[in-house]
Amino acid sequence: MTRPNPRHEPHADHPTRTAPPVVVSLGLALAVPAVVLVALLPTAATAAAGAAFTAGTALGFAAARR
Fold first, then answer.
1. Which contacts qualify for 53-59: CB closer than 8 Å, 24 or more apart?
2. Is the separation of the CB atoms in 28 and 34 below 8 Å?
């Protein structure tokens, strides 16, 4: 069995790098609304299509009555 290379072991004076909490918080603060927005886009598109269909139907009936 070979010994691990000491250069690959974390040392107290050279700890392994992790993102600062502020960066993680900022990343989450930006990512969560983006995911919610992408998830709601189909709903908004469906609602817009439904509103257009309803308006078109109402205009069609109004035109047919004349």
1. none
2. no
How many other C-beta atoms are found inside a 10 Å radius of the C-beta of residue 61? 9
Q: Does pTM top 0.85 for this prediction?
A: no
Q: What is the pLDDT along the chain (66 residues), one digit of tens a residue?
A: 677 666 665 655 666 667 777 777 888 888 888 888 888 888 889 999 999 999 999 999 988 887
Residue 60 to residue 65: CA distance in whole angstroms: 9
Q: Output the six-digit token pair for 14.
A: 């050279």
